[in-house]
Design brief:
Length: about 140
């Protein structure tokens, strides 16, 4: 029983340390470069997973220099049909606006405020990896 208790306490301590370390990392530290095409000159990065009450939001971006050429919502909240429909709508609206305006300094999509903010937060972190020399696009990250 004593060994079991020691192992349980040690496991809990390791798990707590890992969770705390991940929680203290900035979103940019979670973003990762996932592809570089030397022939096309593009860089693709995957933003961090942003957890919400109804699921996770994660965005992948492809840039050509500092120009955003593609966006993919890799993960969206989908714990129920309403969340899924709102998330799909928000992702489509944000993708369209970002590609046309080349900025993430946008208003949130009505009815999908948290999803919109998480989408933009994941995207901004990915942009720092895919287009590191681009000017900052959004002054207010989600807290």
């Amino acid at each position: 029983m004593r060994i079991f208790t020691v192992c349980t306490v040690a496991s809990a301590a390791v798990l707590t340390t890992a969770i705390t370390a991940k929680a203290l990392m900035t979103p940019t530290e979670h973003a990762a470069l996932t592809g570089v095409s030397t022939t096309a000159g593009t860089r693709t990065a995957l933003g961090p997973e942003i957890p919400l009450a109804h699921g996770i939001v994660q965005v992948q971006v492809t840039c050509l220099g500092t120009k955003i050429v593609n966006l993919v919502a890799v993960q969206l909240p989908h714990d129920n049909n309403h969340s899924w429909d709102d998330s799909l709508h928000a992702a489509a609206v944000l993708r369209s606006e970002i590609l046309s305006k080349q900025t993430t300094d946008l208003d949130v999509v009505s009815g999908a405020t948290y999803t919109s903010r998480a989408y933009l937060e994941s995207l901004n972190a990915a942009l720092e990896v895919a287009a590191p020399n681009a000017p900052k696009m959004s002054p207010t990250p989600m807290s």
